[in-house]
Every structure is written in structure tokens, then in C-alpha cells.
Amino acid sequence: MEDFSQYLSGEGLENLEKARHLEEEESLRDPPEEPYKSKYAARALLIVVKANLVSFVNDTVQDQVRFAAAGIEAALGINFVSTEEASAGEEHITNCLKMLDGREADRRACLTALKALNQLGILWADRGECSNALEYLSQAENLYIKYTDEVGAPPFDLCDIFKGTDAETFSQQGQKLFDRCHTHTLYYLAQVHHNLEQPQQSAYYCQVTLKRQLILNEYDPADWALNCAVLSQFYVAKCDFTQARHCLASASHVMGHAERSPPSLGEGESDEAHAKKLADIARCWAKYCAALLQESRDRVAADLDDDDDLQPTKESADDDDDKERFVFDTLELTHYEEEVTDVRVANFEQARGVFLVAQRRLADAREFYSLYHHASDYAELARDSSLLYKLLAFFEPDFERKSKMHKRRVDALCGVLGELNPRHYLLICRQLMYEIAEAYGEMLDIKMAIVEEHQTTPSPHAVRKINSLCAECIRNFELFLDSFKTNDVMPEQFDSDNVRPVLIAYFYMGRMHSKVIDSDVHKRIEYIEKSIDCYQFLVSYCEKYPEVESLVKGEYDVCKEMVTLLPVKIERLRRP
User: Fold this and answer.
1) Which of 135, 260, 287, 394 has the highest count of CB atoms within 10 angstroms of its CB?
2) CATH topology of domain 2-163+170-216
3) For residues 129 and 90, is the Cβ–Cβ distance under 8 A?
């Protein structure tokens, strides 16, 4: 027993501490040509310790050997995994858990078991086997809870086992490592639930992780802020704007602290990486504002459609006053939360306030995502801005100002489209063409509404404007459709991502051709025939591929009717 204790606290502890120093510090300075030099040296020391422990196996010190050896097995397993030798690492970690079987909640074993279970969870997640990963990580979570509830005393770190530390002289290092290890468990659970497409559970573990990092004061501010901003998008999708805004305000607060305290930034993080995180947080704010305006528009539209029997649209922050709120209550967020509302807006002035916040955030994002260095992201920002103008226009009661907002959309989107090479950015160019065409269609509807409001025959100027808007809408939809052609031939069938936009483009073109105003009967007939051709394309495609009909059900019904009615209209026009 004395020899065993002397070995543990002497040579064994010395080798263990050397191995840790090599892995945690020296390995950071390894040359690129020998990236695992220090880790291999650490492994050699751990193997020596393992071999020596075997020689002490006897009835008197069996438990001490078991816990020390299990800790060394876990350390070896993690070492092998870190050098991309996953299978060997898994074998050592599995051996560790076998040695601890039934004793994981012992004070001398719990931290070792937690590390081992986390590592197995990571291994299986890296293999794409998220169900297996979830099983191990759930075991780790339950072990932490059980130990905390039933034992409560700080667990022993492996070095403490070698030192022979007792409860009176315990240094608290084991508790810090134990808490940190549990935070890692929660972080990995968030990732695994995300990969298993379980967003509710993923969001829960993400927010618990973020809160623990704040409490333990163990986090990189920029990384924490970005993760919190990304979490906000889960709540945005649920229309839980109170929780989403709280996450975004927390992100901005912590990021602001990072800006004021440069030494607290992630070690070695470049200025570019930091600027990107700032831009991404700004984009999350803009997405929040757009979603709030979208939900507000939908609710106002529902009110207008049915004042007496309004059905709730989506879950929202003010739909459930009793819902438990998750808050980062150690942060002072008043400044950020007062910047923008978290309740639905109902009029133009309220909508404009949200709109202006979003535009400021988009301007912040453009400081990093420039057109010439990040073309795809810059184009996405332009589309975000376009959407904001579209949503704001809904709340604008004046038709002329509505139209100008859509014109701003067109100008911004055309400016980006003109700078992109379709050969390199085909998908983005398609999206821009489609959205530009839609904006022209919106402008046409507004112009027609102005004419109807005055209940007069359109003036020659109004006719020119209407026909010009029709032509621009059609031209941009034709550019969109031409992008699918190969050797000037359209494909017979479109993939699932593109079939609805393509068919809707034909539907819009059919509408636009029928809106053109011309006093020449023959030209009017030509436009109507073009309209029939567009409607017929949609009908024929749906009849050839019946599974598509559900994607464009409303448009399909209209097109079927128009294909029948418009020839009759042509016949009437041809009569003398």
C-alpha cells in the first residue's frame, strides 16, 4: 500500500502532470510538419503510468488502482482521438467505462466517467450516428445530475487521485473541471439535437449552455454573442419576438463588452473573423425586424379579411402570458431592448420604426460583406433590404409612396444584378431577376389601383406607365426563365426547388400580357394569345406531372379558367 501511494504521489503524478503540460500547452507550439509531436510524447508517458499501475493490483488497493487506471485509460482515449486515431481512442474510452461499471457516481470516478461519455458522444456524432451520440451524452447529463443531487461534494480530478487528496484539503479544481465538463455535455447535446432535426430540444440545450458559460465566466465574448444571436433565429421562426429580442440584445451587449475590452477577445482571433461575427449579429437583427413586420402584416391582413372571426396565425410572444421566459438575468439589456419593439406593429409609423432599425443593421453588415469580396452575401443583404421595403409598403396608405418603395427595391436589386456574372452566380441572379419582376408586378397593381380609385379613363401618361411596368415585369421573368435553358431549349421537367417559381413566373406573365392597354385590336389580340400561351403552359405541365398541382393549386385553377375564357374574349374582339 505504501509503495503504491508513493508511486502515485511521486513518479506517477510527475508523469501525469508532464503529459498534461505537453497536451495542453506544448502541443500549441508544435511545428506544422509535426503537428502531434507533443501529443505523442504525452501518450508515451501515459502508457508508462498505465503499465506501472498494473503492477499494484491487489486486494488492498484495488479501488485506488481501478480509479487511477480508468482515468489513465480515458486520458489515452482522448489523446488517440485528438491525433485522428478514433478507433484506438474509442477502445481506450470503452475500457475506462468498463473499469468503472457500477462505480461512476463515486467521487473518485465521476469526472473521469463524464469525460469518457462526452468523448464517445463526440465520436459517434462525428460519424454521423447522432442517435448513438445522444445516448452517451444523455448518460453524461444524467450522471452529472445524479452526482450533484446525491453526493454534492466536489469530485476528484485524476491528479487529485494521484495526490491522495482528501475532503479537507481538496482544492476545488475538480469541481471547476466537473462544471466545465457538464457545460460541454450540454453544448454537444445542442448540436446533436440540431442534427437530429429536433429544434426545440436543440434551442433548450443551447440556451442552458450559454447561461452556464455566463455564470461560470468561461466563454469567449465574440463566440458567445454570435451563438446567442443564432439562437434568436429559432425564436424568430416561432414568432416569439420577446425571447428573440432578448437573445439579440444579450448578443449585442456581450459583443459590445468585447469591443470595449480587446484582451477578452478570442485568443488569436483575426480582425476579419471578429468583423464577420459583428456583421452576422447585425444580420440576425435585420432578420428579426423582417420577421416582425411579416407577422404584423399577416395579422393585419387577417383582421381586414375577417374582423369577427380572427384566427391566430402563429405562436407569438404575447399569445401566452404564462409562458416561462428564459433570460440572461446578469446582463443589463435595457438600451438594446428599447431600440426596437417586440410586439406586432399596426400602422405605418410603428412599421417605419422597425424598418429603420433593420436598415441600420443591414448597413452595419455591409461594412464586412462588400460586393467585391463577398458577392453572395452582399446580394442576400440586398434581398433582405428589398423585403423590408416590400413589408413597409404594405403599411403605407398612400399609393404613390407605396410605388416609390417598390421602385427602391428594383433599383437596389438591379444594381446588384448588373455587377454579377451569371456564369458564376447563376442561382443568385435567378433570385434577383425573379424578385425584380415581382416588384414591377407590385408597382403595376398599385398603378391600376390609382386608376380605379379615380374611376376615370387612364390618361395617355398612365397608359404608358402601365404598359412600361407590364413590359419590365415580363422582361425580367423571361430573363429568369431563359436562365434554365440549355442551347435555347427549356427542360421538359424542373427539379423540386425550381418548379414552383418557374410555374409562377408563367402565371405572372399571363397576367401581365392581359393587362397591357392598346387601342389596336390586333395587338390586343396578340397580347391575349400570349397570355393564353403562358396559362396553358402551367396547365399542361400540371397535367403532365400531377404531383406538382398541389404546389400551385390556386394558380392552376385560375389558369384553367383563363384558358377557357380568353379565347371567347378574342372572338368578341374579332367581331366587326
Assistant:
1) 287
2) 1.25.40
3) no
